[in-house]
């Protein structure tokens, strides 16, 4: 496994490894050592080349403070290596041993109500604690020095799903670190008071030592600037905690690759130091964990959404944990993949940017908080259909990896994403309206169902490879993005700006210039004169969606409930639409074309959706939020003109298509996400790399059937 230096972060970045990582997280500490040889032989027979070890085993590596014993994992790694299985080792800092939390109780996390975490679960240590950071460096240094020359270890994972159990902290150590962060950021207390609006509600501070960590409803709402900076600090602190480990590992062996496996995307700025420190990112994918999001089009659409969001942070990635079967913790359980679906879900991950994948997990635990989280091998040590599907997927990868590696995922339609400040700015002042992501789901779902190449992209990235960019009401629009955006439009791109974009500055202040602000106002030829709240179509009062975002509960959405909801309508093309969530009245320049006009109440006749020709492209502004119906109308009005078409014509329902491409080749992934057979007749001619068959444009796929067609 050869590693090269990683390229800068971009959605178009490919992995810097020369082989596809395929394998499983493995926990040799959960079974008797007599199982190990048989496990390694079965992994090799399945076509695996790697395992991930050690993320929850600090107590084994250091049973007493300062007493290190790596012999257990030395033996496990040697057994795996004898069968050609390489190891990715993990720093074990998600689960400190009991001697550490008992001797140094100040390392324990404190929640918003002042409750100190107890031992007995995971992520109970506060990564802001200087004592815990010292112990984190100590165990990492010991591991790195011990394994620096071990030929079976090829890379490292930092910690495990940082901030997944909890991302916030309210300990004394956190407050001290927060004050240091603010001192470095603002230097003078007057600058902080200005940024946080200290003259509102007399919230000004005399010095940095008086600043506290913000708490919700304590008793009222804190300043949005205060909340934003707290979450900026948490992201900064998370990156610093990881950076300690990365520095040690790089120093020990620069040939190792280093990544982190992300679970919940909470309080981590992937485009900042956190992502820049790593060779690539890893994303743990559990499509059936988010059953409440089936409204977004089913498990396949949810998986596609997660993967496309994640790819925007740093390009191609690996999947350190891919669901293999039924999963459960005491408080929930997931659906179970049907026969063939586990393999299909894995190929869906590859289709959307995975250049490595590990099925979670090798075998299920017989004790602990995940006893019903099934693995590839069953509790009785018998390999059944999940093992066979994992082996089938490994054979798939062997057939396609030569053509796959070095390709990126095609996008014709892109949604602005991967910006930490905009993610957090929404949360500081949601007003019961949908987040940028919830709004963008309408467009992503439509493109997924129609087979249109769609994903997420940061405005700093190369936009020349996309045809349309949608900005889903990013309230913090940064002036440094304007030049790239304008060049994209002038060179033929279509820009669509959503309502409320550019309504706040970096401090969450309302600017004195009208939205969407300098740069975008001139580009679109519009300025927002007035705005107001409207009900979601079909809602009983001012409710938003059902309170989920990326599978997570969002109670702030309920705050807008009202029995006095008012509906507004507008006409786009020859269809009348109900507005969603918000209306804006627009003042438009003379060279602006009005695509849609308000058709009810006092707004009747005013511009609702506009388009301005700029160079070879168009800048469109929407004075409302997306709905499914509005996306369909926009597609009818805009997509053909922008050169956007489905990857496959006459695409049957429940068939997912994606293209990965390089300068000399294109791979079309065709995946049946349903149990019924489907016939396709409009495919490009080429070779199905999975079956080796030449195709003339026609193909029949059985239940959860898959094809990867190389074409030009």
Quick summary:
By secondary structure, this protein is of the alpha/beta class.
Write the CATH architecture name of the largest domain: Alpha-Beta Barrel
Determine and state the CATH class of the largest domain: Alpha Beta
Radius of gyration: 26 Å
Strand content: 15-25%
Poorly predicted residue ranges: 292-296, 541-564
Count of DSSP strands: 32
Largest sheet: 9 strands, mixed
Keywords: Glycosidase, Hydrolase, Metal-binding, Plasmid, Zinc
Protein name: Beta-galactosidase
InterPro entries: Beta_galactosidase_C (IPR013739), Beta_galactosidase_Trimer (IPR013738), Class_I_gatase-like (IPR029062), GH (IPR017853), Glyco_hydro_42 (IPR003476), Glyco_hydro_42_N (IPR013529), Glyco_hydro_b (IPR013780)
Domain Glycoside hydrolase family 42 N-terminal: 27-399
Question: Could you explain how this protein is built, in words?
Answer:
The protein is 29% helix and 20% strand. The chain has 712 residues and is α/β, with parallel strands linked by helices. About 4% of the residues have low confidence.
Features:
712 residues; alpha/beta; TIM Barrel; Rossmann fold; Immunoglobulin-like; 3 domains; 9-stranded mixed beta sheet; 7-stranded parallel beta sheet; 17 helices; 29% helix; 20% strand; Beta-galactosidase
């Amino acid at each position: 496994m050869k590693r090269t230096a990683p390229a800068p972060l971009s959605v178009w970045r490919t992995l810097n490894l020369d082989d596809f990582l395929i394998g499983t997280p493995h926990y040799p500490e959960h079974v008797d050592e007599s199982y190990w040889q048989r496990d390694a032989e079965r992994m090799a027979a399945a076509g695996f080349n790697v395992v991930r070890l050690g993320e929850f085993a600090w107590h084994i590596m250091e049973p007493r403070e300062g007493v290190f014993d790596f012999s257990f994992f030395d033996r496990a790694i040697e057994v795996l290596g004898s069968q050609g299985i390489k190891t990715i080792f993990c720093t074990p800092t998600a689960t400190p041993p009991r001697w550490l939390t008992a001797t140094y109780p100040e390392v324990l996390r404190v929640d918003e109500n002042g409750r100190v975490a107890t031992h007995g679960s995971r992520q109970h240590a506060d990564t802001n604690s200087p004592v815990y950071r010292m112990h984190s460096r100590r165990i990492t240094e010991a591991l790195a020095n011990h394994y620096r020359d071990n030929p079976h270890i090829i890379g490292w994972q930092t910690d495990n799903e940082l901030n997944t159990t909890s991302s916030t902290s309210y300990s004394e150590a956190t407050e001290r670190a927060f004050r240091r962060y603010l001192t470095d950021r603002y230097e003078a207390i007057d600058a902080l008071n200005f940024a946080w609006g200290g003259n509102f509600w007399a919230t000004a501070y005399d010095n940095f030592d008086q600043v506290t960590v913000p708490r919700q409803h304590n008793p009222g709402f804190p300043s949005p600037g205060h909340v934003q900076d707290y979450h900026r600090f948490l992201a900064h602190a998370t990156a610093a905690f990881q950076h300690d480990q990365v520095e040690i590992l790089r120093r020990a062996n620069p040939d190792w690759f280093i990544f982190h496996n992300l679970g919940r995307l909470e309080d981590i700025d992937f485009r900042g130091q956190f992502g820049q420190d790593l060779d690539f990112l890893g994303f743990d994918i559990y499509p059936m964990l988010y059953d409440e999001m089936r409204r977004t089009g089913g498990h396949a659409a949810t998986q596609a959404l997660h993967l496309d969001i994640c790819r925007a942070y740093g390009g191609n990635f690996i999947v350190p944990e891919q669901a293999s079967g039924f999963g459960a913790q005491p408080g929930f359980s997931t659906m179970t993949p049907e026969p063939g679906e586990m393999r299909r879900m894995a190929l869906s991950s590859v289709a959307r940017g995975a250049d490595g994948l590990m099925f979670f997990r090798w075998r299920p635990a017989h004790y602990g908080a995940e006893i019903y989280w099934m693995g590839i091998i069953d509790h009785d040590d018998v390999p059944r259909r999940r093992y066979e599907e994992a082996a089938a997927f490994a054979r798939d990868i062997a057939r396609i990896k030569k053509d796959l590696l070095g390709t990126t995922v095609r996008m014709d339609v892109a949604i602005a994403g991967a910006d930490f400040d905009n993610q957090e700015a929404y949360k500081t002042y949601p007003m019961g309206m949908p987040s940028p992501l919830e709004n963008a789901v309408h467009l992503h779902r439509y493109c997924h169902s129609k087979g249109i190449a769609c994903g997420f992209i940061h405005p700093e990235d190369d936009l020349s490879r996309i045809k349309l960019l949608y900005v889903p009401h990013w309230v913090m629009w940064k002036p440094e993005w304007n030049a790239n955006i304008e060049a994209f439009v002038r060179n033929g791109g279509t820009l669509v700006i959503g309502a409320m974009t550019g309504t706040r500055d970096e401090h969450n202040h309302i600017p004195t210039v009208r939205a969407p602000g300098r740069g975008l106002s001139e580009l679109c030829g519009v300025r927002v004169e007035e705005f107001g709240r409207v009900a979601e179509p079909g809602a009983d009062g001012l409710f938003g969606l059902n309170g989920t975002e990326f599978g997570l509960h969002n109670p702030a959405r309920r705050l807008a409930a009202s029995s006095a909801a008012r509906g507004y309508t507008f006409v786009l093309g020859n269809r009348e639409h109900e507005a969603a969530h918000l209306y804006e009245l627009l003042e438009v320049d003379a060279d602006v074309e009005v695509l849609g006009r308000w058709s009810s109440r006092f707004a009747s006749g005013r511009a609702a959706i506009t388009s301005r020709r700029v160079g070879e492209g168009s800048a469109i502004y929407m004075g409302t939020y997306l709905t499914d119906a509005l996306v369909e109308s926009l597609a009818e009005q805009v997509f053909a003109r922008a050169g956007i078409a489905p990857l496959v014509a006459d695409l049957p329902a429940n068939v997912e298509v994606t293209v990965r491409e390089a300068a000399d080749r294109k791979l079309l992934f065709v995946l049946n996400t349903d149990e019924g057979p489907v016939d396709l007749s409009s495919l490009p001619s080429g070779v199905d790399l999975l079956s080796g068959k030449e195709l003339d444009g026609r193909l029949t796929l059985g239940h959860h059937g898959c094809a990867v067609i190389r074409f030009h």
